[in-house]
Amino acid sequence: MPTIYDYTDYRDAIRDFYLEKKKSNSKYSYSVLGLAIGLNASHGFCVVEKKRNLPVRCVPAIKKLLGLTGRAAQYFDLLLAATRTKSEKTREEILAKASLLRDVKKHYLQEKEQKYLSDWWTPVIRALIEVNQGRINAQEIAETLEPNIGVESVQESIDLLNELGLIQPLGNGLVKLADAHINISGEERAQAIRKFQANVMQIGARSLNAIPPADRDISTLTMAVDQKGFEDIKNMIQEFRKEVQVRVDKCGKPTRVLQMNLALFPVAFNKKKQ
After folding, report:
1. Quick one: DSSP state of residue 271?
2. Where are the domains positioned within the chain?
3. Helix, strand, or coil here: 38?
4. Which of 48, 153, 223, 225 has the smallest set of CB atoms within 10 Å of its CB?
């Protein structure tokens, strides 16, 4: 099932939701759909077929039905507004805003590409290449990294980036990044992810003494929550991470590489069963 970000017309999302429900339950009908969102069967059919727009009063119900919250719900609102306006210029402006909320394009690493996360400095070097506007000098990069890893390790990472196609030569001694963002998925990749995360968290701890306070921002919060609060906080972190990435994409000429670690974990459990 696609996510809401795969659509540019909210009615297509409703249509696919309806068809998916119909596939798993032959008795699912426009009457059932309409009842869930406050429409009669005829109006529900017209919305799915793009003959009518969804009434504003039904928006909260359809968002709940589709499981849309946070940025996803905002994205839905923009798609709805885009279909309602009669001005093509306004429609384009609204869809442009929607594109900023769309999930950041990701490059899914295959088995061979798991090596990308074998050492914390490889993603950092790739980001540094962007800061240096495509210029590569292993010695300079080695001197820039904190903590220092040595020229040989830097060169190995550059070779790896070339091998994986994550940087591409421009023919003038410079290179360009092949993709903007990288994400890996799959159970078999979990070990590589944990190793990478453990490494960067250790570097974060080291920065407490190695990096001046003016050049870092480290804070902690100890809290007591119930299960619902825990789930809500996790969702808030996910939304925040996406918002940060959207802001990063607006940086025209980066001058530094930052590592942001977000960690939420239990330090005590109530062993009494409620």
Report:
1. -
2. 4-101, 111-218
3. coil
4. 223
